[in-house]
User: Fold Aminotransferase class I/classII domain-containing protein from Sorangium cellulosum.
Amino acid sequence: MFVDVGRPARPVYDVLLRRGVIVQPFGNLPTGLRVTVGTERENQRFLERLSAVLR
Assistant:
């Protein structure tokens, strides 16, 4: 799934990775992340950590 984080994605990617959430920068779109849909628990953890990073 593509997620536009509304800011440069690389720093968001780096913080998420350090917090145990694996996503990927999305090719040529500098504000995009590629996110794989996981289990309900994994998805919730991703949303919580992404929210914390974007505050």
In short: The longest helix spans residues 40-54. Residues 2-54 form one domain.
